[in-house]
Model the fold of this input.
Amino acid sequence: MKPNQLINEIRSEYSGLKDFPHESLANSIKILADDLYAKDTHFIFELIQNAEDNEYLNDIPSFYFFLKGMNLNGENQVVLIIENNEVGFNEENVKAICKVGNSTKAKNKNKGYIGEKGIGFKSVFKVTSCPHIFSNGFSFMLPEKDEETGLGYIVPKWIDNPPKGIKSDWTTIILPLDKGEEKTIRGLQDIAPETILFLNKLKSIEITISLPDESHEIIIEKNDTNYPVELTYLKNSENIQTHKYWCGNLEVAKPDDVNSEKRQNIEAHAMKLSVRRQTLIVRMWYAAFFLPVFC
Done:
């Protein structure tokens, strides 16, 4: 099926609601209310984690944030552009992102899981009312409010004329920051180099903020070809900082008397441990998923 045909087919499913289960709609609203994260900038880490979960060919995984002004849909706006050289969206990915509670990443019942292109992506609605997605021939937006169907967040709308400069062989997400320009700027500026320490695929993150009254650049690179792992951090062309880390895993079993309705099938979680200059840093990657279980 052609990309635009799939988008139009999904829209048609929502338009009449003749065959669409009302229970699914109610579930969508509930999950949106419960699981859109309390911290406004959580979406930044969701996008980084999605890039880590993505599939890549032979290229070194690359991931970029660009915050700047641009003409989008005939209007000058401040936007956050996310670029990632993954293999790109397929039909399953598009269907998952147009629902709530679905994920294209299989669940590991014993160790926990991180979703991909599913509920986590909805966290971008903390800062935008209409994310735009361009990937593998797909070109669509997900309005927070869709007048035709009366729904939001999950009803795609095809984009006939993508902005100039979109890389056809990359995945590009554009977020008009109509609900969170300042907090997005602060969130990007606060990204620490240790953010990629325990990621297996991503070796670098580049952040560029280019506005008339705000300019910022961060480059984080990881070299894990040798041990210990080496992180390099460059901020606003200042002196390059390099630190080395000794890293390892520690699996923690769930106590028998601790149970969570949302994590019934999770029996253990692998904690990430790192040591830098005699300082022990214990990190539980994606702790938001597991704190209800172990606390």
User: Anything to note?
Assistant: The chain has one domain: 3-235.
